[in-house]
């Protein structure tokens, strides 16, 4: 297995050790270290671990409806056109999970994107869907999971791996974090950065970049108390400060989408979703033993 060169890695670690620097400088440094310690192939393996867990332990059911999948693939394709420019090394995959009661979407390392049918039913228009998908793609592009691993390791452990004292340390920690779901638990700074990606990617795809803000506003106003919303709220707190930040980012960067805020296309998808039966209940634990 190819190991990263120690010289550039140690140089990056030295920068981090000296970093009594700004937040943005530290983020840039952590991202650089993560890209060396946790290369693209290892990110993909992490994503495959999570995928296996979803399918074998959580028994998720993917939606097979051609029209719904075509809609999601169409929106995601436009979003990923921007993401691929910044992470051309990632092979993206998009799945729709058949669960109308769960409002959620997430992305795992390696470019695996998942959106629940419940989120499609909850959104008002395609601009909101695009904003959410752009946000999730942003987590992958910014290497947020890999950066979490760097933080979780600590500088001393990272330097030990770089010096060859524990060459399998990164892989071992990654497996542990993936099993605990820690790879998908992002902090405020990561969520805010992903919001910016979501707005930027949506605008570049021709959608109103305010879609992600209006989706959060819906949650912030209390609609999140409805059954199913709690899943998304638990990982994406819809605070007024967060909404204000993304609105300010859109204004400062003069982001505009060419399309309006029509929900006609999504309305057709919702009608199809309402006619699709929910997935069967997963097998009870211990069944068949």
Can you describe this structure?
Belongs to the peptidase M48 family. The chain is mainly alpha-helical. The chain has a domain at about 40-140 and about 185-275. About 60% of the residues lie in helices and about 5% in strands. The chain has a 3-stranded mixed sheet. Strand 2 (about 105-110) and strand 3 form a beta hairpin. The longest helix has 21 residues, at about 65-85. The model has no long low-confidence stretch (mean pLDDT about 80).
Helices and strands in order:
Layout: H1 6-17, H2 23-37, H3 40-56, H4 66-86, E1 93-97, E2 105-108, E3 112-116, H5 117-122, H6 126-141, H7 144-153, H8 155-162, H9 169-180, H10 188-204, H11 211-220, H12 229-235, H13 240-252, H14 264-275
Parallel strand pairs: 1-3
Antiparallel strand pairs: 2-3
Helix pairs in contact: 1-2, 1-8, 2-7, 3-9, 4-6, 6-10, 6-11, 10-13, 11-13
Mean pLDDT: 82
* Uncertain stretches of 5 or more adjacent residues: none
How many DSSP-defined strands? 3
Structural class: mainly alpha
- Percent helix, as a range, is 55-70%
Shape: globular
Described by strand count, sense and barrel closure, the largest sheet is: 3 strands, mixed
Number of helices: 14
């Amino acid at each position: 297995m190819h190991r990263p060169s120690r010289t550039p890695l140690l140089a990056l670690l030295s920068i981090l050790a000296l970093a009594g620097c700004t937040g943005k400088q530290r983020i840039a440094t952590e991202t650089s270290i993560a890209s060396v310690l946790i290369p693209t192939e290892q990110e993909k393996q992490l994503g495959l671990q999570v995928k296996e867990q979803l399918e074998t332990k959580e028994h998720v059911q993917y939606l097979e409806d051609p029209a719904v999948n075509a809609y999601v693939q169409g929106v995601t394709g436009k979003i990923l056109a921007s993401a691929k420019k910044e992470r051309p090394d990632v092979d993206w995959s998009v799945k729709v999970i058949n669960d109308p009661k769960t409002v959620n979407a997430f992305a795992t390392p390696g470019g695996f994107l998942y959106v629940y049918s419940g989120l499609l039913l909850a959104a008002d228009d395609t601009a909101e869907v695009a904003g959410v998908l752009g946000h999730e793609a942003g987590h992958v592009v910014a290497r947020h999971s890999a950066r979490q691993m760097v933080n979780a390791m600590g500088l001393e452990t990272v330097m030990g791996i770089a010096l060859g004292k524990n060459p399998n340390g990164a892989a071992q920690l990654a497996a542990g974090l993936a099993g605990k779901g820690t790879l998908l638990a992002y902090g405020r700074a990561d969520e805010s950065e992903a919001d910016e990606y979501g707005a930027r990617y949506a605008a570049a795809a021709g959608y109103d970049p305010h879609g992600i803000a209006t989706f959060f506003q819906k949650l912030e106003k209390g609609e999140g108390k409805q059954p199913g919303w709690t899943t998304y709220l638990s990982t994406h707190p819809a605070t007024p400060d967060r909404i204000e930040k993304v609105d300010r980012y859109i204004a400062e960067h003069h982001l505009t989408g060419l399309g309006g805020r029509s929900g006609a296309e999504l309305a057709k998808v919702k009608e199809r979703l309402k006619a699709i039966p929910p997935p069967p209940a997963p097998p009870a634990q211990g069944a068949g033993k």
